[in-house]
Design brief:
CATH topology of the largest domain: Rossmann fold
Shape: globular
Largest sheet: 6 strands, antiparallel
Radius of gyration: 18 Å
CATH superfamily of the largest domain: Nucleotide-binding domain of ferredoxin-NADP reductase (FNR) module
Number of helices: 5
Structural class: alpha/beta
Protein name: Ferredoxin--NADP+ reductase
InterPro entries: FNR_nucleotide-bd, Riboflavin_synthase-like_b-brl
CATH class of the largest domain: Alpha Beta
Order of helices and strands: EEEEEHEEHEEHEHEH
Number of domains: 2
CATH architecture of the largest domain: 3-Layer(aba) Sandwich
Length: 238
């Protein structure tokens, strides 16, 4: 397993609880839209066994063309040891990246693409939208729907509706409105639905989509292939 050590180049305060850490791109490090990585703090591999408390599974919120690796995360006042250390890191501090992989690249199948997310989960979709803006081939349109009760919506410079780009960005601040909108989107029976959020959020969305007739193969999750049956084998007869 190759570990890439790199430095924090810039820290962006997206809103009072969300920060984006822009990291230098180490030589040989590659990724694509929809990628996640293992993001580790200094000392995680200092002992005989790795300290898993200093490692988190994070989405990369940038494209390689931006020449920086973006890690966007929510850090609340009451938070874990990992987030507490992360909050106090500064430009120039070192972090490590390893086991980078994409489960949710942009599918180009001449279909509508729907991006369903909760809160900072939108970070996973930022590079997919940018990739679509760069090259819209074989994608009919993209509709992003994000729910965030804080109302401090993320990336509104990119997630703004554009008729010219066949792109719709929709934000809601409560789950009831959100799921009503999901039902409307599911009226397009051959769309592709990407979902990012907590496991509970994934299961709730899948249940709503399946009730509307959406098939498992149309649902994209940021999960390893071995984990997908835990979510997509939902028995609607129960």
């Amino acid at each position: 397993m190759q570990i890439y050590w790199t430095k924090i180049n810039k820290i962006i305060e997206e809103n009072p609880e969300v920060k984006t850490y822009l990291l230098d791109v180490p030589e040989g490090f590659t990724w694509e839209e929809g990628s996640h990585t293992h993001f580790a703090l200094e000392g995680f591999n200092a002992g005989e066994k790795p300290n898993k408390g200093l490692v988190r599974h994070m989405s990369i919120s940038t494209l390689p063309s931006e020449n920086a690796i973006g890690i966007t995360t929510r850090i609340r006042e009451q938070c874990s040891e990992f987030k507490s250390i992360l909050r106090n890191l500064e430009i120039g501090n070192q972090v490590a990246l390893f086991k980078t992989h994409s489960n949710v690249p942009l599918k180009r199948e001449d279909k509508n693409v729907y991006l369903l997310s909760s809160g900072v989960g939108l970070a996973t979709f930022r590079p997919l939208v940018l990739e679509y803006f760069n090259r819209a081939d074989n994608v009919n349109q993209i509709h992003s729907l994000n729910v965030d009760s804080s109302k401090d919506f993320l990336f509104t410079d990119i997630f703004k509706s554009s008729t010219a780009k066949n792109f719709t960005a929709q934000f809601v601040d409560n789950r009831n409105d959100y799921y009503e909108e999901v039902k409307k989107l599911a009226a397009v029976k051959d769309g592709i639905f990407y979902i990012v959020g907590s496991d509970e959020f994934l299961l709730q969305n899948i249940e709503v989509l399946r009730e509307q007739g959406i098939k498992p193969h149309q649902i994209m999750l940021d999960k390893r292939e071995s984990q997908l049956p835990n979510f997509l084998s939902l028995d609607l007869s129960v």
